[in-house]
Amino acid sequence: MRAKNQKHHAWVFILSGLLLAGCAADVGKTIKVSGEQASRYGVLSAADAIAVLEKRVNEAKDAYMPFFAPNHFRGASEILSAARKSAEKRPRNELIGDIAKADAILDKGNAMMATVQTRLANEFALKIQLDKDNAARVYPREYEKSVSELSGLIEKIELGKADNIDKDKIELGKKMQALDIRTIQYTALHESDVINEDTEGNDGEDLAPVSFAEALRVYQDAMNRIAQSPHDNGVVQRAEADAMFAARHARNVNRRVIFLQKKYKKPEEAIVLDEEKRLLGISTALAHGDLRDRTLEMQAEEIAKAAKEIVQGMQKAKPADGAINDQSKPPGTPAK
Asked: Can you give the residue ranges of every domain in the chain?
């Protein structure tokens, strides 16, 4: 379970630096040390008190307080750092008082973390989805901007300035959802988009207008289908496959036209499509499916292979059929 949590939330430490600084000292001004906290640390030596606080700070770090309540975590951490440096120079009572104060700040930080996670539950769910989509790699600037805005909302809640954040939450949610869809579209359709760009760069719009226009139409249709159901893996995979098929087909047709243009000195996409139509007819008759997303040479090889396998299967079946017929004859019947 710990490994799973680290996988989902490792980003909190990386992104905690995006939060505003300068308020760490302020969070402790209104926090009071309880009698229990004062007595707990009061019986300890300076070294033991520092060790206990260090353990608490590490536990807070493991619980992701640097992200969900950064100012509280920073406030306690600064007190711990100061205590380590001045343990032998400061009066014991003053040192213990500060450590108890840091302990109280961490208690308040734990409560604040729960508040933050409750009020921003939808935004955190969207953040986890963006991480799952690998949005930080695909659209780093948009991702960082969304996370920065999320961090700003966290700090407003932590510092008690969140009376009017509902509008900001709605706007941020829309941005994160849009980024989620764009990321999934890019991941699924980037390769087909590259192929279409290659076809266009090789005069596909002029040399293979029918096939290239169909590739663009299928690509846009795939974009729309993914936008409607971005988290339906079946829909996304089918859209990706359709776009790839159309893109490869257009590229192969365009390349064939270029070849024929050099050979016959005239651009005729119809010649290529006629060749494909003939091969498609043979492939369909063999129940071998549509192979047009491959080159004509590959289509021909695949069809020849399929035909050979069918012939071999028929040849193997003949002796078996003869044996069955012989077994069905009455005893004593002479073989033909």
From this structure: 14-119, 123-182, 187-285
